[in-house]
Model the fold of this input.
Amino acid sequence: MEESPSAARLTSRFVAGRTIEDALRVTRQINQGGSSATLDYLGESVTTGQEASAARDVYLRLIEAIHAQNLNANVSLKLTQLGIDISEQACRENLAAIANRARALENFVRVDMESSAYTERTLALATALHSSCANLGVVVQSYLHRSEKDIEELIRCGIRIRLCKGAYAEPPEVAFPRKSQVDASFDKLGRLLLLTGNYPALATHDEKLLLALVRFAGDHNIDRNAYEIQMLYGIRRDLQARFRAQGHRVRVYVPFGGAWYPYFMRRLAERPANAYFVARHLLRR
Ligand SMILES: Cc1cc2nc3c(=O)[nH]c(=O)nc-3n(C[C@H](O)[C@H](O)[C@H](O)COP(=O)(O)OP(=O)(O)OC[C@H]3O[C@@H](n4cnc5c(N)ncnc54)[C@H](O)[C@@H]3O)c2cc1C
Done:
């Protein structure tokens, strides 16, 4: 179905565009501004092997283009996009194909974390593949009760970790229900990663938390090049610029592609003001 120009305009605040070329153009601008990028070809929960193979092929093209155009960028992907719900074996093969090609071109692949229904399988698959592809990293969510143990185990294996708060609705049995608890957990796990992790990524727009962690790193003589701060495309650009100006490494997560709906809805749900922005846009039409 043809997409309306209005939908493209509406989503452009959080989504770089629909095509690989859009993503590469935005990455070039981000690089020119002094930040690196991680490119996410939007898509999740595919239901056929063909869709999973098609997503794998887009990532392979992306990795080639990043190399050919000498961009400072890596890729982020989801295992439900590579078909984990259809066949774990096929998903592993898709991921291995991407990670192997990235390794050959000295690039890095981040496996995003989805809902808690996938945590165990995602970490198991990534850990198994990491022994042959050290250029593979994972994501840990501070809202999960299990995350401290996961981090300790991942650090033992030398796997690179991105720490985020977590974007899915989870029951209290598996996740902290209160924001203050999620924030406290991020602070604790962030310190653990700064002290013992392998080039951790602190992925949040929470200024207070970032300032506290950056101060902690300074107090412990942790080099600014030993970790990076990550933020989403279109969110807190002012804060991205400020950390960059202070000499911190900043990586921007750049989503692109036609399957923007779930990603866009998660961004709206995170902040009531975003829903007003959408309503205003719709009323203007
Ligand atoms: C680089 C990166 C990768 C991520 N990868 C994953 C992943 O793999 N799995 C996963 O579950 N989650 C992922 N997330 C999402 C994350 O879990 C949070 O849902 C998201 O970052 C919002 O939480 P916050 O840390 O910014 O803190 P919050 O406390 O929610 O927000 C702090 C401040 O940030 C700003 N802000 C936050 N969200 C928005 C928004 N949508 N629009 C406008 N301003 C906003 C506001 O100023 C807010 O006060 C990722 C986030 C980042 C930055």
